[in-house]
Amino acid sequence: MKYFFDTYAIIEIIRENKNYERYFEEEIVTSVLNLGELYYSLLREKGENEADKWHEKLRQTALAVNPEIIRTAMKFRHDNKNKNLSFIDCVGYKMAEEKGLVFLTGDQEFEGLHNVEFVK
Questions:
Q1: Which domains does the chain have, with CATH numbers?
Q2: Which CA distances in Å does 55 have to 38, 76, 98, 109?
Q3: What is the CA radius of gyration of the chain?
C-alpha cells in the first residue's frame, strides 16, 4: 500500500515516533506545499541544516499541485467547514485520492474519513 504523507506524519517520522515505525521504510510521497510547510517547521525547530537535509531528501517525491486539485480541495474544505481543516491538508487529502494513495496523518480532523490512515 502506498501512502501520501501529510506534514504531521513526516514530522513524526523525523521524530522517530514509535507509532510511525511501520512507515519508516516507506517512500515518502507528499506535495510541494507539504514540503514547504515541513521546511518551515524544521527551520523553526531544528535549524537550517536539518530543514535543508529533509528538503533535499524529499524534493524528488514531492508532487506538483495543479489548479484542478485546488478547486476540488476547496470544495472538500467547504463541505467540511465544521472541521478545522487547513488549505494544505485539504489539498493533500484530495491529491492522495486522485493518485490512489492512502492519506497518512495524525491530524484528528481527518480521523474516520474515507481513505485516511490515522496514526497519533
A1: 3-118 (3.40.50.1010)
A2: 8, 28, 24, 26
A3: 14
Q: What is the pTM of this model?
A: 0.95
d(CA 117, CA 62): 19
- pLDDT per residue as tens digits for the range 37-92: 999 999 999 999 999 999 999 999 999 999 999 999 999 999 999 999 999 999 99
Handedness of CA 65, 68, 74, 77 (dihedral sign): negative
Q: What is the DSSP letter of 6?
A: P
Q: Output the nine-digit C-alpha cell for 44.
A: 523553526
The grid coordinates listed for 25 are: 521504510
Q: In the chain, which residue ranges form alpha helices assigned H by DSSP?
A: 7-14, 32-45, 48-58, 67-79, 87-99
- Which amino acid, one-letter code, is at 119? V
Instruction: Identify the burial level of 33 via C-beta atoms within 10 angstroms of its C-beta, where 0-12 means exposed, 13-18 middle and 19 or more buried.
Output: buried
